[in-house]
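Problem: given the chain below (178 residues), write out its structure.
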Amino acid sequence: QENPNLRGKPVAVIPSNTDHTCAIAASYEAKAYGVKTGTIIRDAKQMCPNLICVPARHDIYVQYHNRIIEEIIKHTPINKVWSIDELSSRLPPNKRNKEAACKVVRNIKQGLWDNVGTAISCSVGLAPNSLLGKIASDMQKPDGLTILAQEDLPGPLLKLKLTDITGIGKNMEARLMR
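Solution.
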């Protein structure tokens, strides 16, 4: 949002300007080369020779976080803020049907575009609980909307890999497989 020249390019956010640090975030374009959070920058530059490394600007991230929160609470109550870029909402009973919930999502997305920035998007998961909502939001990125309706479960979940489930990384996957 702050630097339009970076849009559509492979970018890694780094805490310090050295090849010995790791990426703390990566654009979708960088992720296409295999660069992800935790990738050592010297390795990332081998994976993606055109990688652009930019220093983290935590003060700016906090400002955007606050603006995003202000926008979202115009449309739905926030149940819990999980991190600087993740939160969950327990929709009021009158907004829990598919049509009303999708309208809330459309209004949030439009509000972010209008009031926070045209490069700010969000992926939303509508589901019976926060864990399933998080899993659903990860199923369609960037800027997606995935609905995991109670009556459709467990169907869509059966197609997922274990590592698609929040909190299960490669080590936990190996342990679970054992």
